[in-house]
Design goal:
- By secondary structure, the protein is an alpha/beta fold.
- The chain has one domain: Carbon-nitrogen hydrolase (Nitrilase/N-carbamoyl-D-aminoacid amidohydrolase), CATH 3.60.110.
- It contains 7 helices and 15 strands.
- The strands form 4 sheets. A 6-stranded mixed beta sheet has the order 7-8-9-10-13-14, with helices on one face. A 4-stranded mixed beta sheet has the order 3-2-1-15.
- The radius of gyration is 18 Å and the shape is globular.
- About 40% of the residues are buried.
């Protein structure tokens, strides 16, 4: 099946949800005009990271999700609205959604593998997300989940075809590794996206922000490198920079059937002991 995915490498204005949401609608409108079927935004793109201002910016009423439900209906497009820090009675979670073109929430996913600073103020999720859509079975992950093959294996066993990953990744996340290569984490992300596509026979959609992160105690440069990777071909579209840009890429799930015929990974998974 052929369909089009819009990936938005969004430059975030920190702690400015109204401005970010206004710009987001313009991207949704543009993607709809370009006949995209799905549009994907990055992690934390509505507010930027809010670790120091949780109570002020965390969503307690699902207002951001409802905003994108309305946009999905208005522009007749499926939306993955990046990720949203939400609060319920148990605490704070880093959450993403899949909203279809009727405005219905098809799935909610809470980030399982928290990045190290997030562990101080967020609760981890505990369930993978795989669900049926008209494009096939889609799975959701967030950023640091990408590093863990176990998450992908669980999704593969559930028959996932497309994995969508909103992310917020900086060059500085490599920390001491920067002394070996300043592009260390760009290389890591590129390798992971292609590797996950091949080893799980999936379409891998990765969406990261543009620009810079400026906080009182931290300065960083976002990776960019938003991309879509598939088996056999690797990255079929990738932004090699960290500037704001949206691309629309056609994908075809027929390639996944050929990958299953060639590699038979999913057949092997059914009989594996380890």
């Amino acid at each position: 099946m052929k369909f089009k995915i819009a990936v938005v490498q969004f430059e975030i204005k920190q702690f400015s949800p109204e401005e970010n949401l206004k710009k987001a609608e313009e991207f949704v409108k543009k993607a709809s005009f370009s006949k995209a079927n799905i549009i994907v935004f990055p992690e934390d793109f509505i507010t930027g990271p809010i670790g120091l201002k949780l109570e002020e910016f965390a969503d307690t009423e699902q207002k951001y999700c409802k905003f994108f439900q309305n946009l999905a209906k208005k522009y007749k497009i499926d939306i993955v609205p990046g990720s949203i820090i939400e609060k319920d009675k148990l605490g704070f979670y880093n959450t993403t959604y899949y909203i279809d073109s009727s405005g219905k929430i098809k799935s909610r996913y809470r980030k399982i593998n928290l990045w190290h600073p997030e562990k101080h103020y967020l609760n981890p999720g505990n369930e993978v997300s795989v669900f049926n859509t008209r494009f096939g079975k889609i799975g959701l992950i967030i950023c640091w989940d990408l590093i863990f093959p176990e998450v992908f294996r669980k999704m593969a066993k559930k028959g996932v075809n497309i994995v969508i990953c909103p992310s917020y990744w900086t060059f500085e996340d490599a920390s001491v590794g920067l002394k070996y290569d300043k592009n260390s984490d760009a290389k890591l992300v590129d390798a992971l996206c292609v590797g996950r596509a091949f080893e799980n026979e999936i379409i891998m959609v990765y969406c990261n922000p543009a620009g810079n992160l400026i906080l009182p105690k931290f300065r960083g440069k976002l990776l960019g490198h938003s991309q879509i990777a598939v088996p056999f071909r690797g990255a079929i579209k990738k932004l090699e920079h960290n500037k704001e840009e949206m691309f629309v890429q056609e994908v075809d799930t027929a390639i996944l059937k050929d990958a299953e015929k060639a590699y038979k990974i999913r057949d092997d998974l059914k009989s594996r002991i380890l």
